[in-house]
Amino acid sequence: MQLDNYIMTTIADRLAIAHSRIAQAAQKCDRQPSSIRLLAVSKTKPIEDIIAAYQAGQRCFGENYVQEGAEKITALKGDYPDIEWHFIGPLQSNKTSIVAQHFDWMHTVSRDKIAQRLNDQRPNELAPLNICIQINISAEDTKSGIDTDQMLPLAKLIAQLPNLTLRGLMAIPTATADTELQLKEFSTLHNLFQTLKLHYPSIDTLSMGMSNDLDAAISSGSTMVRIGSAIFGERNYPV
């Protein structure tokens, strides 16, 4: 059953379907569903929707827009301090301080300068910022992320920064219904993930897969899938 085609009336219902889909995909490849985390992508959605998902048991939320995400975190941290906030969008260097000061995770690091600024601007009273390196696994000019041969040098820098913790890799693969191509790109990313794990014991997160390629991602070893509109409905993008 495709998440995007399943119409339910509440966010709680949609979350339940998402978890069911993850469990089914995991069982097909002899994995434990508990080894895969669901990141609910709440960009452009109101705070009320996040609270509804929280009340249904969701704790991890992903935001793509710096200012919007920071405003939501500020509004909710008092009553919902156990929400884990992930920044999953592109980040300009002049906005790194906002991510460093508000978020728990940053998924899209692809430049030394961004990593260094995030480290330098992370408040001392906060735990180190969890970092995923973004790989341009499809080698598309229009996508962010580093080439595969740049992974280890960037990882080495991040691992040396005291206010960051290197956790893994993230990628946005080719938007395609071609399962063979999905599996090829995911397999490449999984191999890079395994290589990174050999060098750094903190590596435990492979952030790949969305509602349209969930099965291929999970069969290829994803530990975190990102689902948005199938939980919250279609997005209203900023003008």
TrEMBL record:
<dbReference type="Pfam" id="PF01168">
    <property type="entry name" value="Ala_racemase_N"/>
</dbReference>
<dbReference type="InterPro" id="IPR011078">
    <property type="entry name" value="PyrdxlP_homeostasis"/>
</dbReference>
<feature type="modified residue" description="N6-(pyridoxal phosphate)lysine">
    <location>
        <position position="43"/>
    </location>
</feature>
<comment type="similarity">
    <text>Belongs to the pyridoxal phosphate-binding protein YggS/PROSC family.</text>
</comment>
<dbReference type="InterPro" id="IPR029066">
    <property type="entry name" value="PLP-binding_barrel"/>
</dbReference>
<dbReference type="InterPro" id="IPR001608">
    <property type="entry name" value="Ala_racemase_N"/>
</dbReference>
<comment type="function">
    <text>Pyridoxal 5'-phosphate (PLP)-binding protein, which is involved in PLP homeostasis.</text>
</comment>
<protein>
    <recommendedName>
        <fullName>Pyridoxal phosphate homeostasis protein</fullName>
    </recommendedName>
</protein>
<feature type="domain" description="Alanine racemase N-terminal">
    <location>
        <begin position="22"/>
        <end position="235"/>
    </location>
</feature>
<keyword id="KW-0663">Pyridoxal phosphate</keyword>
